Amino acid sequence: xxxxxxxxxxxxxxxxxxxxxxxxxxxxxxxxxxxxxxxxxxxxxxxxxxxxxxxxxxxxxxxxxxxxxxxxxxxxxxxxxxxxxxxxxxxxxxxxxxxxx
Length: 101
Prior knowledge:
The radius of gyration is 13 Å and the shape is globular. Helix 1 runs antiparallel to helix 2. The N and C termini lie far apart (28 Å). It has two helices and five strands; from the N terminus they run βααββββ. By secondary structure, the chain is α+β, with helices and mostly antiparallel strands.
């Protein structure tokens, strides 16, 4: 059985903002891209350590996968078999803002 994958309120807001922004040009592409981000994130249920450790935080439990231009920042809890997605962060935005601790 895989890990549970959950989106934080910040990640949900990020996803909503991404889809809204893309929809200004193409509503169909926006929905498709949102689904693409989610489907890539769901892979973490079976492969929680798929991503690399986020270099800015140097904490083995805070990892990221890169999906096109976006960094999907997440925490892994092996004890709880859980992956908590903290942010969907565009790579051009610099250091991801997440609550650490």
